[in-house]
User: Fold this.
Amino acid sequence: MTVRVERTFELDAEPAAVWAFIADPERRAQFISVVSEFELTGPGTAIWHVEIPIRFIDRTIAVETEDVEKREGEYVRFIGKSKVMRVQGEHTVESIDGRTRLINRFVVDGRVPGVERFFKKNLDGELDNLEAAIRKDLGLDT
Assistant:
C-alpha cells in the first residue's frame, strides 16, 4: 500500500518568501516530527535521521534525500530513500492576487510492515506542522 497525501495552503505572503522556506532542504526537514537529526551532504542532498515508532524498527533510519527537480521560485521535488521506505515530496508555489498558494504532495512507500500504516495515520499531522512552521517563519502566526 502506498500512502499519498496532498494539501494546499493559502498564505498572506509574497511567493518569494514562501519559496525561500520551501526550497531549503533543512527548513523542510525541521518540521517533521520523526526527523531526529539532519545533515546536509551536498548541494540539494541530505540525510534525514528518522525515528518511526513501529514494532519492526528499533533504531534510527538514515533516509538519503535529494532534490531531483527544481524550478526556481515555483517548484521543488525531492526523493528520499532508505531500506525501510521511499518518500517523494513535491511543493508548488503559485502567486494569487499578492498572496501565495503552496501545493504540497507526498507519497510514502514502506518496505517494512507498519511504515505505511504509521504515515497514513500521521502524514496529515506532519503537514499541519509544515504549515505552522511556514506561518511562524513568515510572521503569520494566528
